[in-house]
Amino acid sequence: MGCASVSAYAAPMRQLFAAALLFLAVVALPARATDLNRCIGADGHPVFTDKPCEDLGATVRPEPAAAPTSGTSTAERAHPRDCARTTDTLQKGLQAAIAAGDVNQVAAFYHWPGISSAESEEILKRLQVIAARPVLSLDLIRPQQAQGSDGYRTVASELPREASAIEVVQVRSAGDPERIHTVLMLIPYAGCWWVHF
């Protein structure tokens, strides 16, 4: 009885020991480092690959230029994961996201509540086009003085102070200087400012 009980106990212990050794061997293996290359395909669309861009007939995507920061403090620029508390902060954060050419950063400033899956795919395609183009400027569009129905001009202090839209001025591509103007409407939501088409 003594040998049988030791043998019955030894088999599960050997299996547990073998499993522990296998686990340690897998954990101890160095992680394989793979470089992700950012390329521009022949059709002009971004391509992400672990192979050299040239192997795919693509060119190396240039690193995005840093967004202009002179005269703006860190507190004035909205990080894509934060919300823009003012339209000026939204303008600066959106400009930095477009200058970086990152659709995910641009999308972080978009007002998504109430958008269906099908609509979101179309919106992301439109935002990708904006993120891919070189940006010249982002201009806040503020309400202008308007003449009221009674014939008197509205006093500027009676108009909303915040902008109602942002005009994104871009060139079609680095090789095509044709200017493209896109107007994004602004919406306040949950204490922040967001853009939408």
Q: Which features characterize this protein?
A:
197 residues; Nuclear Transport Factor 2, Chain: A; 23% strand; 2 domains; alpha+beta
Question: What does this protein look like?
Answer:
The protein folds into 2 domains: 34-63, no CATH class; 66-196, Nuclear Transport Factor 2, Chain: A (Roll), CATH 3.10.450. 31% of the residues lie in helices and 23% in strands. Residues 29-34, 72-80 and 153-159 have low confidence and may be disordered. It is flat and about 90 Å long. The chain has helices at 2-28, 87-100, 103-107, 117-132; strands spanning 37-40, 46-49, 59-60, 135-141, 165-173, 176-189, 192-196. It has 4 helices and 7 strands; from the N terminus they run αβββαααββββ. The chain is of the alpha+beta class and 197 residues long. It starts with a helix and ends with a strand. Strand 1 (37-40) and strand 2 form a beta hairpin. It has a 4-stranded antiparallel beta sheet with strand order 4-5-6-7, covered by helices on one side.
Entry summary:
This protein has 197 residues and is an alpha+beta fold. It contains four helices and seven strands, in the order H-E-E-E-H-H-H-E-E-E-E. Strand 6 (176-189) and strand 7 (192-196) form a beta hairpin.
Shape: flat
State the helicity in percent bands.
Answer: 25-40%
| Sheet with the most strands: spatial strand order | 4-5-6-7
Q: Strand content of the residues, in percent?
A: 15-25%
- The stretches of 5 or more residues where confidence is low (pLDDT under 50) are 29-34, 72-80, 153-159
Structural class: alpha+beta
Instruction: Spell out the helices and strands N to C.
Output: HEEEHHHEEEE
Taking all Cα atoms into account, the compactness measure Rg is 28 Å
CATH class of the largest domain: Alpha Beta
CA-CA gap between termini: 81 Å
Largest sheet properties: 4 strands, antiparallel
